[in-house]
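Q: Two folds, back to back.
A: First:
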Amino acid sequence: MKYGVFVAPFGQLSDPHKLVDLAATAEESGWDGVFLWDHVLRPESNEILDTWVALGVMAAATTKVRLGPMVTPVPRLRPIKLAREILTVDLMSDGRMTVGVGSGTDSGGELSRFDEIVDGRARGARLEEGLDVIARLLEGETLAHVGEHFRVDGVSLEPRPAQQPRPPIWCAARRTA
């Protein structure tokens, strides 16, 4: 069994130096992973760091602990942007990246207040298609994809991730009704 810490990079932890210290301390204390919530808006705080930038900084400050988001809402992101973020953190961490993904939630209005898709089924469809695109790009495929939500015209992703064929992807789900 492995043990990880997951924290919200907002409020008191919206200082990137605190997150770096937390990751280093977790590593020194024997934790197996440090994972960050991935939100853009929260009702309890407007002080929010970008999860992916923070993960990159944490990767540079640690050597053993696994890192990743818990969870990144794929439907609100462009697949190529997320694939590049995953690739970059995987390389910066020398293959210690674990990608937690989900469809997202509108807690605090972080979808509706930015005119993002709120409907759960629509987000689920975008999650499924987006993950397929992301996984195929990370696995080195030159991708030609025309789907309901995304189009990719002959794109490959380089450099290759440290983990082959790609970093592990964990999918989260929760019942909301």
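A: Second:
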Amino acid sequence: MINPHPGLPELEYVKPASLSEACKFLEEHDGTAKPFSGGTDSFVRLRDGVIKLDYLVDIKGLDGTKELSYDPKKGLTIGAAVTMNQVVKNKDVIKYYPILVQAANSVASYQLRNRATIIGNICNASPAGDTIGSCLVLDGVLDVTGTTGKRTIPLNTFFLAPGRTVLKTGEVVTSITLLPPPAGMAGVYKKLGRNIISDLSIVGVAVIGYPSSKSPSGYTFRIALASVAPVPMEALKAEAILSEKKITTETLALAADFAMDAVTPIDDVRGSARYRKLMVRNLTREALTEVWTKLSK
């Protein structure tokens, strides 16, 4: 009888003394080594044979990867080794980024969130990543270190395809910085799964809105969608409608229709493409209505 969940394959654990050492090792062992911090995804994929590696490179605690700080001008910085539970308990995150708290709390179980990280969720490049949408609508920028130096990558340019990113060989994401929240911002994350907790999203919708003198409607909305395209995405046409037209129940419904039309989901064991499209419309309308209710009080 075949064991569907064999044990972890034999591999070497590498603990570099510095980030530069880690990057050099990863570059020299391209294709056989992978960086990890929480490891919640890597260990499962290794166990199931989805990925095959000779080395796991532990980057926890290297060069700012444990930073979790808020600056009113710079915004929120989350290091690669900061766990989701650390993020959701931080007073500044709770005060200024409640949508990120909602999204992180929707990931799996409390025990897993003691290991899982925001950066890991991003670097897995899964279309279903729950925390990615909140980081997208808050204009997240990734700090990246490699053997040739450092660079920054806007999150909205980071994803290429499921499991693929623009990272080069030997590069490691050390942190993400989210912009300070706009004045008067309200936000919500909506997730549809087969279970109330501990399930991958069938559809994920992150919405923020805030007063804006630059928009004819007087408001700007940002809408990010998960599990409904090859990569996490923003519903740009839906955002444009909400910027251009007076905000009414009809406008919110129209924007939700535009969001539905923007997605290209697939059929899989968790839901059909048609079901996902309809749920994008419904969840987007619900999220927009909740945000608008908060803004119009």
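Q: And?
A: The chain has eleven helices and 14 strands.
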